[in-house]
What does this fold into?
Amino acid sequence: MTKPTNIRVVLIPILGIVIGIGLGAVIVRAIGESPLETGRLLFTSAFGSAKGRSHTLFYATPLIFTGLAVAVGFRGGLFNIGAEGQLILAAFVTALAGIKLSFMPAWALVPACMLLAAAAGAAWAIIPAVLKVRFGVHEVINTIMMNFIAIGIVNYLVTGPFLAPGDQIPETALIAEAAHIPRAARLLAPFGVTLPSSVPLNASFLLAIAACCLVYVFLFRTKWGFEIRAVGLNPSAARAAGISVAKSIILAMGVSGALAAMVAINEVMGYRYRYYDGFSPGYGFLGIAVALLGRNHPFGVLCAALLFGALVQGGLTVDMLTERVSKDIVYVVQGIIIVAVASGAVLIHRRSRVKTRGVENVD
Amino acid sequence: MLTMDFGLINSGIRLAAPLTLAAIGGLFCERSGIVNIALEGLMLAGAFAAAAATLWSGNPWFGVLMAAVTGAVVALVHGVVCIKFKGNHIVSGIAINILAMGAPPFIAGAFFGTTGSTPDVARSLGTWKIGWLGMEYSPLVYLSWLAVPFAYVLVFRTRFGLRLRAAGENPWAAEAAGVNVGKVRYIAVLLSGVFAGLGGAFLSIGYGTSFVRNMTAGRGFLALAALIFGRWTPVGAFLGCLLFGFFDAFQIRLQGVGRIPPQFVQMIPYVVTMLVLVGFVGRARPPAALGKIYDRELSSTGA
It folds into this structure.
């Protein structure tokens, strides 16, 4: 398999996006609405105002985290389909910490909650990793099963012992004020930018950017990252070179789970200030799309997450302001993009391979 | 402890039916070497198609037909990505699931003006009574039972089935022996779409009376788990689906009673599947070439 040249790496996702948006436009036309008008609405809503841009960034934040999570897994040759379960478990643990550890001051409570979230996500991801290392079980099915198990455990806890007293809907009590993460309104006020404090964009977006940088450094500038990537590209060669495949797998999944868990920070500490059952519209699965589109590179993940965030924000507006286009068009477009990118991904590598007729290699 | 009664058994049988249809569909596909985690999306597509077609035509059987057709068409996308474009099976499956999350509510919103569900169908599929056996179930339940011997005979007692299994174990050897692996896999994928679509149809017009957003609620994954639990065999998958169906019925009964949390009962199928994969309850070995990218031009090492 030849190494793809740089331009081709970016070409496939861009083509995929073009195909997705193109087909989306066709679909919008087919149901009797104007694609241009819909597109204009979508674009202006996502980028046209400070409030819109803030919402775009807010919707992108969880996708950056899950996109990074899946990307790190992919780099290690692992399919982390369990990001959904990892982030749900982490969100619940975060809320619990924010409630139970309320005696701590903010400067201690915030990092404590973050660490506990990361630990919960990492632990949940390491279980399938250990099963893979120890028993050779493929992580795809295991992580899918772990999703449902996590959803079940948390649902039980939220509707039972940890239900907010007197509450009808499945959510926990509010976390302590000391565990809150500041919102954009407060952060940007000193710079003269006025945003309503109801805008949910919060400091965890900055954490997401930092995570992109850290993941880049981790994957491409540290020994562990190198080993993870080596194992992902060719486990037997890596083993022959003295790399511990087992450790790399567990480390990759642990980091992946910890990254997915960061969604909890945005959701619980920056937005709802509690655990709300069903808060995730499938961030874990969308993270797979984001990682794919971003070619498993932190910078690509950032761009892809921003695009999807814009689609979500624009989709909500389009849903409200058009007769027949609902916000679900976003899922349709995302699905088409993934299909296109998945189909094209192999073409990058095939194009430059020389096909030999006649006697094949004897191995 | 709750007393077992016929109501529970009936519920279990009814809840197992869509799982069985989807799991049998998954069996064809995975036995040919194509991973299918899109059963969830295929069921959803079938459920929606069944409801929409029934609303449009007034005839639930037309709905059943369209569910099968829609399932096949959506599965074809998965097939083309995996077979023609040699794309990653898992990613393609995820794409189908995401598409199926969005397309049905979107279409419902556009044509029925709703926020993701369809209006109630006037005529649901109804039930057929088999008096001498004392049973009365929806025809799709009976179909799910027939699917098991059908799958067994097709996969294990016909030439086509042999080719299908060969494609799943070692496509390179199969191709060398003259099997058209691509064609066999396309048929397998289409079959999976048909059956999963029918499973979805049962949810919307066989058991219920309309399509509701995301109404499969993870059943496609449960069917996949049952398939694995059943070691990729028709009878095993069927027994797995029955077992999981009973757990579901049991869990519904437990709600509100308080002694055992229903969520924990709901989780048992997933835990059990993991144990089966690990080997605690006997080893489950998938088809050897399951999920491997197969390119006719390359040898098995990719050279």
Observations:
- The two ends of chain B are 61 Å apart (CA to CA).
- The first strand of chain B starts at residue 128 and ends at 130.
- The first helix of chain B runs from residue 6 to 31.
